[in-house]
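Have a close read of the entry that follows and walk me through the local backbone shapes. See right below:
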Amino acid sequence: MAQQEADDPIMISALQHYSYCPRQCALIHVEQVFSENVYTLRGRAVHERVDEPDSQLEDGVRVERALPLFCARLGLAGKADVVEFHAGDVPYPVEYKHGPRRSKEHDDLQLAAQAMCLEEMTGKKVTHGAIYHHSSRRRREVEITDELRKKVEETVMAVRALLKSGVLPPPVNDERCRHCSLSEICQPQTLGKVGKIHVLRSKLFDPDAAL
């Protein structure tokens, strides 16, 4: 990547936001707005234990909490909730989430980005990490596959293009909006209706438009 990109890193969290919803990503990282709801408050409570930098030895494994991360090649920066260093000092990132144990591709993307940062920082190959689901007190191991790595690189480019454009994408107005803390600011239902009306008007006098 260009030097300018490396000098102006994007946050790893932006990849997770973009994967969930490009408009949410733009509201947070372009418009600089944020709002709490029950889901973000739960997430904040879960992260309280790992938000303070700490280093401990647990059962022979070095555990680093709130570890700063960076990747000059991708122009990424952020912070890992927990990184365990196993045999040979191989990093194993663990991302904390408040919900029950279930697979979410945007969570896996965030974890893979952390793994790629750790690889550049340590020179060690990171093949796996885990999502710790607080509600079930269980881990879900994630393999850092080539496909997932490619998705990280594609999302980095997409986020960087979004930030550069400064354009707010249209609302999705689907099931994701129910859980989004920015729903009131985003107004997906209202803006979605306006968009639908605009499309209907454009087809009003089109004889080839479906009735």
Summary: DSSP finds eight helices and seven strands in the chain. Residues 1-6, 37-41, 193-201 have pLDDT under 50 and may be disordered.
